[in-house]
Amino acid sequence: MPPEQPEQRRGQRLLFLAVLFAVLLNFPLLGTFSHDARLAGIPVLYLYVLVVWVALVALTGWLVKVK
Question: N- or C-end of the chain: fewer Cβ atoms within 10 A?
Fold first, then answer.
């Protein structure tokens, strides 16, 4: 079996990351944060979406940059 190409491996990791964040930003998890609680004056749902989005951008950048 030939070794995998680095580009193919990177593509697989990016696909996994996309699926993971699709799950994290889908209804069942968003529903758990959809209540009136606030953290530092920010609604918990907004904070959750912001943190997940920042993590997505950071991990995608890191995966694209790593060789």
Answer: N
